[in-house]
Amino acid sequence: MTGGMAPSIVEIGSIGGNLALEVGERSGASPMACYQCAKCSSGCPVASRGDLKPHEVVRLVQTNQQETVLASRFIWECTSCQTCTTRCPQKVDLAGIVDALREMSRGRGAVTLSTAVPVFNELFLEAVRERGRVFELGLMVRFKLRTRRFFEDADKAPMMLRKGKLALWAPKIGGKAGRKALFGRAAAGGAK
Amino acid sequence: MTYAFFPGCSLDGAAKDFRRSTLAVAARVGLEIPELKDWICCGSTAAHSTDPLLADALPAKSLAGAGGATVAVACAACYSRLKTANHHIAADAALRARVARVVGRDYDGLTPVRHLLEILVRDIGLQRIAAAIRRPLAGLKVACYYGCLLARPPEITGFDDPENPTLMDRLLETAGATPLEWPHKTECCGASFSITDSSIVLDLSNRILLMAQAAGADCIATACPLCQLNLDMRQKDIEAKSGRRYNLPVFYFTQLLGLAMGCQADELSLDSLVVEPQALLEARGIGR
């Protein structure tokens, strides 16, 4: 070494550990490129309410804190608004990282009890598989039955009906068997 | 001009008024938008939060059916999902092959996808829009609200400036309205948390209404079903929680444009708006 200014080479694996590698692989994002400027958290619409802020999520990924990040409320309160991804000076796709963390959180049974988002997502995708399109009224009813939230927003359905905003019949398009096969092949990862 | 129209699920339900006003405006400017055959749901946030492959495959299935036509989209969330799938598939041959195995046919990721705002301002052009204006929206101060997904991320949507988009402002200015400078054009309304955790929507949408009011807006113009629903249908709840009074009508931009083009109120489904706009329109002498 000649002097102290020579750039050092850091092995990603030695710092990031498995979490950063897996998140990077799933999302195509580069969590290790984050230098913690916190610009993402400055513009995040839900940073003030979350248990974590976006830059903290990335730091936890970098330092391999699986339990904390996968069980966090933040990953389920993120609105996927893409502000963080758009503004990041290092082009770290934070919204993509959060998607990967949601997938891993579900896969490992680590989802926080405080969120109903995974239930909603599951019912939504079930509707797409069955009907090809989402029938809003049917989805709402199923969601209320599953989460037992019968009285929340009880005024909204009559309001929407009065305003002509509620379709009462589900759309009918064919191809159900084909869609079921498509969902099955996607779940298998599009393997040969 | 002809495009294959991808209306998206909301335009069959809670955003029927967006569909109706879009068709009314299209007829006035000679825009032909026959519906894309056998389109299916884009998968929305539910798909991309669950399975990235499914999130690319669902749009690919619809876009592969366009037969080379340019696809026109109204809903900002559908627009984002279709553009994102294109971006992924066109750039990654291995992913393209996996998506092809899932969908059952090859799709190259190259079907062009355009939002109605891009089509009206860039393809049809403001000169032709101006020629179709019959009753200018004189004196109407509008906060043009774009939401998250039209302009972000810009590498994927290529829509407009991600921090200060102006397509809707220019369009409604051409319709005679006064678009306002305001800082919340692309802040998030809370989107589908309307169903899963409405406290998020009440908080985020309140910030948008507050800023629109502070900027002196008479009304808000939107380009996304979720944005419109959150700001309009939840406005009473937001007022109750924040202790503020807004009474700001929240239009689809196509409804305002249609009014300026001389369409009747029922062609534009103005009675679908929860915050009723009649008093405002009468006070400005619009729609008579």
Q: Concise description?
A:
The complex is a heterodimer of chains A (192) and B (288). Chain A has 192 residues and is mainly alpha-helical. Chain A is built from eleven helices and no strands.
Question: Main traits of this protein?
Answer:
heterodimer; A: 192 residues; mainly alpha; Fumarate Reductase Iron-sulfur Protein, Chain B, domain 2; 2 domains; 54% helix; globular; B: 288 residues; alpha/beta; Glutathione S-transferase Yfyf (Class Pi), Chain A, domain 2; Rossmann fold; 4-stranded parallel β-sheet; 3-stranded parallel β-sheet; 14 helices; 8% strand
Write up what this structure looks like.
The complex is a heterodimer of chains A (192) and B (288). Chain A folds into two domains: 12-107, Fumarate Reductase Iron-sulfur Protein, Chain B, domain 2 (Orthogonal Bundle); 117-180, no CATH class. In chain A, 54% of the residues lie in helices and 0% in strands. Chain A has helices spanning 12-27, 39-43, 54-62, 66-70, 74-77, 83-87, 94-107, 117-131, 136-147, 156-162, 176-187. In chain A, helix 1 (12-27) crosses helix 7 (94-107), helix 8 crosses helix 9 and helix 8 packs across helix 11. By secondary structure, chain B is of the alpha/beta class. Chain B is 48% helix and 8% strand. In chain B, the strands form two sheets. Chain B has a four-stranded parallel sheet, sandwiched between helices. Chain B has a three-stranded parallel sheet with strand order 1-2-3. In chain B, helix 1 (16-29) runs parallel beside helix 13 (253-260), helix 6 (116-131) runs parallel beside helix 8 (167-174) and helix 10 (198-214) crosses helix 12. The mean pLDDT of chain B is 97. At the A-B interface, helix 6, helix 7, helix 8, helix 9 and helix 10 of A face helix 2, helix 3, helix 5, helix 9 and helix 10 of B.
